Amino acid sequence: MSDVKTIQDIFNEFEKQFNLRYHMSAEQRKAFNHIKDCRTEKLGYHKIVCDNCGYEKITYNSCRDRHCPLCQNFRKEQWTNERKSEVIGCKSFHVVLTLPKELDSLVLQNKKVLYSNMFKAAAEAVKKLCEDEKYMGATPAITAVLHTWGQNLDFHPHIHLIISAGGLTKDNKWKKSSEKFFVPVKILSKVFRGKFMSYLKDDYKNGKLAFYGDAEEYKNVNKFKILVNKLYGISWYSYIKKPFDNADAIIEYLARYTHKIAITDSRIVKVEYGKVFFKYKDYKDNSKRKIMSLEAVEFIRRFLMHILPTRFVKIRYYGINANRNKSTKLKLAQKLTNILNNPMYKKLTKAELLNKITKGKAFLCPVCNKETLRLENQDRMILNTA
């Protein structure tokens, strides 16, 4: 029996058992070690001192890895602050596109290639249909976020798309969409499937895919063709979620979900007899909150499935808010929707952001209650956080 309740503790306690059964990739080992060593003496420390009363505090450094449950808050706040100045003054739709389970083994072995294909296929499908006069006849702003997990930590790659309820026409006028999402989700799903499959077949033909383990059979071209035919013959599950009514709702969503990781410490209930017990939401049973258990080694294996390729960008922008359009089309869309230069959506300075996160206590000494704290020195190991 154990009172271990954090992912870091689980990694430390069960690492040897895991290594006896499984091999980590270089990317997984790197993230694993970062999480294991986060806020410990292994990563050095920094000292905070008060110039007024002499108070001192030594704090171990964080790993800053994007997969670490201890390091997401400041990263999330920084990113959300950057996006505040990029919202458009209209409601937005929220669509989720998923890959079928039949692709799991291939995707797990070709993450960088096939995750990239998911983004391309999703963005091209949405843009193509939105620009069709039959649906909207304008180019929207599209934010795409990759998630790879389900509530039980199993592999479930899917793309969240935030699509503006309106867009710029070819003659640069703002065109508002209908109140409900204007593209039938079945049509969107079919177009997404067609584009993804086109990229998949091209990658197979050009030798860009790896095949081993459960996917080794697809080295055989006939077996691969059988898989392709099966994928064309099934429906790819896609759905529409509740829309965002305004820019504030979009910012709130982005703040909560864009920097999510597979599971956080808050969901872990206990670790007992070599098993991890954690809370999850059962969507097949009216989203009831339940508790499930996994062997600790299996828990680690599932967590590591969701480690992203090094430097892989999991949040991307298309249409009006594509990087090349941010200084031109995005600004025009903001002007036409009466939100450009609105002080409510002004980006905060670093000092303002720090004060917001710490609720005004960033430099406040806990002893003398004066704003005279400063960072005196650091002993930091430089990390590449992928």
Fold and architecture overview:
The structure is a single chain. The chain is 36% helix and 22% strand. The protein has helices at residues 7-21, 26-37, 72-84, 104-109, 111-131, 185-205, 221-233, 247-257, 296-305, 329-336, 350-357; strands at 44-50, 56-60, 92-98, 141-149, 155-164, 166-168, 174-176, 238-244, 268-272, 275-282, 288-295, 315-319, 373-380. It is built from eleven helices and 13 strands. With 386 residues, the chain is of the alpha+beta class. The longest helix has 21 residues, at 111-131. Helix 1 packs antiparallel against helix 2 (26-37), helix 1 crosses helix 9 and helix 5 packs across helix 6 (185-205). Strands 8-3-5-4-12 form a five-stranded antiparallel beta sheet. Strands 2-1-13 form a three-stranded antiparallel beta sheet, with no helix packed on it. It has a three-stranded antiparallel beta sheet with strand order 9-10-11. The protein is globular, with a radius of gyration of 23 Å. The chain folds into two domains: 1-70 and 267-301 and 348-386, no CATH class; 76-193 and 235-262 and 306-345.
